[in-house]
Amino acid sequence: MYKISTKGFFEQPSDRFINRELSWLEFNWRVLEEAQNESVPLLERVKFLSISASNLDEFYMVRIAGLKDQIRHNITALSQDGLTPHEQLAKIIVKAERLMIEHQKCWVIIREKLRASGITVETKDHLSEEDKSWLKNYFLTNIFPALSPIAVDPAHPFPFLPNLGLATILQIKVNADSQEISYVVMPMPGKIGRFININNNSNRFILLEDVIDLFKELIFPDKHISGFGVMQITRDSDLEIEDEAEDLVSNFESAVKRRKRGSVISLKLKAPGHIKLHKFLCEGLKVEESDAIELPHIIGLSAVMELYSCDNPKLKFKPYVERFPERINDHGGDCFAAIESKDIIIHHPYETFDVVVRFLQQAARDPDVVAIKQTLYRTSSDSPIVKALVEAAEAGKAVTVVVELKARFDEESNIKWARNLERAGAQVVFGFVELKTHAKISLVVRREGENLKSYVHFGTGNYHPQTARTYSDLSFFTCNTKLCTDASLLFNYLTGYSTPTDFAALAISPISLKSRILELIDNEIEHAKNGRPANIWAKMNALVDPEVIDALYAASQGGVEIDLVVRGICALRPGIPGFSHNIRVKSIVGRFLEHPRIICFGDGNQLPSPNAKLFISSADWMQRNFNGRVEVLVPIENATVHEQVMGQIMVANLKDQKQTWQLHGDGTYVRVAHTKASFSAHDYFMTNPSLSGRGKALSKAESEKQRNKIYKLLKFDKRKKVRERKKGKSKEKGINDT
């Protein structure tokens, strides 16, 4: 492998990496920026604020909890950027708490803008007597019966509060002059919404805790309430699984129950001016005071998503109707006939996930289908995918489903689906204890004449119809013999633990995917050394693996041009002169969550090229994906699909300015300057049909026009990039000469 040189660039070898936790926080800042972005419709800004707050909650539950656990067990292993767990935690907490405060400021701004737009969130001090009268009746009827005040004193220990559970805390005296203080914790009912319509007005709201505060004397009519606050705790939510568990499902059920009682990681409190109350909570919950943060406006900001249901279309994105591929309609809705005629790729959410559902429903009802094999990582609560598999099993087909129990926060629903499938007669396998099955594959075996023929679906996203409306992903359908045979081998690996060594086309983790990526990077370095075009395009959610990053640094130093679209965590430092100067990294954050993994290698050709190597994958470039999960890397060889993924999807992502942030070598992101007329990949995909899904509705002339539209954009970029690179090399040469 081509070796990198770090001499003269970094004081320590570890300096060549950006800390993954800080990089994730940078991503969540970008999500928050969309909530602050005045060009985004107001209720969509509410949604972005909710997502950013929810993301941060999960970050505490998993990443911060993990670092605290390492510190608790005196683990001093360094991160790849050279920090101890204690050093990481110190840096992360500062940035995370700043993000929390920024969430609060953002909420205040949005709340005022909502008021100006006719949607009001009132405080208890700005209510009319009529409002109070209505709310009192509502409180007594719909809230009071569900409240359970719990006294806390030497005879009554601090009550259990669930993860992210909200509670009010009251400081009580027998009378106003009494020196004796008692405390009462009152959990807020989770099944009652946080935002209550005032007087049944769909555009006027008040927070649940403000209603409780308003009528707290009705709960304690004979006491003096001297303090009132709202609190929320975050618990350690990682699972510990026994590798040798005899019954894996029971073990997971027990682990999920233990997680609900995980140790408290942080406390958020709104109780202005009540220092005693703050101290009491820290002692009762066994939380360090440094882990408690007081917030001024609203606790549990993820709940603002409830406001999104307000019926005001002007404050939301213009509704978008997903397209259904015409080519399947050209074959009378027969998915198998459409796939047999030519490989097809579906670009979600611009094209509907119903194609995936229909593929499995047709397989369940087709008398010629003899077997279905399926991986399930995450799916919806009312999953049509699972229903189709149940229907197939009940019809007597051989149905094998690999259910991943370790899909974080979906363990309980996956156990439920597994049991439903088993009752229907499906063979349910839980994969490996030590590996997560993250690959997204559906294999259908059908009798056609005297032979069996296979059809396979490879996805970059989950089998989840709801998230497929907001996540950008790819669904690839083929009956290519090599790929179908490889899919069968992979299922044998998952269900029978037979380690395959003879894949014809697929590369899989943990066996060959990483080595294949490194080999392809090396090939580009060789092309550059021999004077041929050498370039890499890659799109993913996260880039962390140090060996792959070092390979990309080596490629940059060897003259390979590298363009990366990394939505979230990126530990690579791009654009450092003489070191990573040929690497550019961008992140796209907008209306849809970017999720597909696409990898392009020029292979001696200037990208995009019909002769370049193209892959889609379920795997991000992280250690856990390469070593701790079952993942797939799927080659795309069909000419139309190849052109759509590389020449349309990747080009549009690289061209995007409207939603793009550029990563700098110091780990900071800067939003790319843009105007209202700047190119948006999301807008492009919403208004331009894909290539492989078009059928007879797309004439040859229209097809050529479609291709030329995107290539026209690319041609301009190519000339511009050549000029910039020549200019950069001349500047670098001048510096070296000096």
Break the fold down into its secondary structure elements and pairings.
Blueprint: H1 20-36, H2 42-72, H3 85-116, E1 120-122, H4 129-143, E2 150-152, E3 166-173, E4 182-187, E5 195-197, E6 204-207, H5 208-214, E7 224-235, H6 248-259, E8 264-270, H7 275-285, E9 292-294, H8 326-330, H9 335-341, E10 344-348, H10 354-365, E11 369-376, H11 384-394, E12 398-403, H12 411-424, E13 427-429, E14 436-437, E15 440-448, E16 451-459, E17 471-478, H13 481-496, E18 507-509, H14 513-529, E19 535-540, H15 546-557, E20 561-566, E21 583-588, E22 593-594, E23 597-601, E24 613-617, H16 623-627, E25 629-635, H17 639-655, E26 660-663, E27 669-671, H18 681-687, H19 700-737
Parallel strand pairs: 1-6, 8-9, 11-12, 12-13, 14-25, 17-22, 19-20, 20-21
Antiparallel strand pairs: 2-4, 3-4, 3-7, 5-6, 7-8, 10-17, 11-15, 15-16, 16-17, 18-25, 19-23, 21-26, 23-24, 24-25, 26-27
Task: Write a brief caption for the model.
This protein is an alpha/beta fold and 738 residues long.
List key phrases describing it.
alpha/beta; polyphosphate kinase like; Endonuclease, Chain A; 8-stranded mixed beta sheet; 19 helices; 39% helix
